[in-house]
Amino acid sequence: MTGNIDLLLEKLSHDSLAHELVDQLRKADRQDWSRVLDEELRARLEKRVQELKDAKDQKS
Predict the structure, then answer these.
(1) I need a labelling partner for 57 at 20 to 30 A (CA). Which of 4, 34, 41, 49 fits?
(2) Is 9 within 8 Å of 26 (Cβ atoms)?
(3) Mean per-residue pLDDT for 34-49?
(4) What does the pLDDT average to over 22-48?
(5) How many CB atoms lie within 10 A of CB 20?
(6) What is the secondary structure of 18-37 as a DSSP string?
C-alpha cells in the first residue's frame, strides 16, 4: 500500500491540498485516516474563516 501512496504523491503537485492530505494519511495508521482528514480539513477551514474575518475587520 505504501508504494501506491508514494506513487500518488509523485504525481500530485507538491503545493496542492491533495498532496498534503495524502502525505498526512501516509504518516497515519489506516484506522486513523478519518480522524486525520477531519482534523486537517477542519483546521484549514477555521484558518480560512479567521483570515476572512480579519480581512473584513480591516476594511471596516
Answers:
(1) 41
(2) yes
(3) 96
(4) 94
(5) 15
(6) HHHHHHHHHHS-GGGHHHHH
